[in-house]
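Please decode residue identities from the backbone states below.
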């Protein structure tokens, strides 16, 4: 929808490489911003024992922000409910039982912890929950095959 008297101006502008490069740069920046906003939102599935305040603490945010982001009027949750979490907040892993307090590694002190597998856990979900690489988790626990990953099994995690 361009006025006919402006058509020649548009043709001239589109033939100018500087203008085209400027348009391409603006589009690329806009696409990056859209992608960043999409990545900034994470989904979290409510589990037994969760409360809005616990989830807020875990993701370093507030209950008010969670309620606003999810269009909630109250702090009531249902098991299995999916919440949107702003990705700008860092995830805090649940507390685990210490196996060894610390161990020296290349990058300084590494906390070695154990994690007891729960119902519904997979190597992927455990790695994601603790913010560690999936391959690392599987290497640290190479004696536990995927098929053997059942509730009650203890895994080693290096934090």
């Amino acid at each position: 929808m361009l006025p006919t008297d402006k058509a020649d101006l548009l043709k001239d502008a589109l033939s100018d490489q500087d203008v085209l490069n400027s348009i391409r740069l603006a589009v690329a920046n806009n696409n990056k911003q859209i992608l960043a906003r999409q990545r900034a939102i994470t989904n979290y599935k409510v589990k037994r024992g969760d409360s809005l305040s616990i989830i807020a603490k875990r993701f370093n945010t507030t209950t008010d922000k969670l309620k606003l982001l999810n269009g909630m009027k109250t702090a009531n949750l249902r098991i299995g409910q999916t919440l949107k979490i702003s990705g700008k907040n860092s995830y805090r892993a649940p507390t685990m039982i210490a196996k060894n307090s610390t161990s020296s590694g290349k990058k300084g002190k590494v906390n070695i912890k154990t994690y007891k597998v729960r119902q519904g856990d997979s190597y992927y979900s455990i790695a994601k929950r603790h913010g560690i690489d999936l391959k690392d988790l599987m290497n640290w626990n190479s004696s536990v095959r995927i098929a053997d990953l059942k509730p009650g099994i203890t895994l080693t995690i290096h934090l």
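Observation: The radius of gyration is 24 Å.
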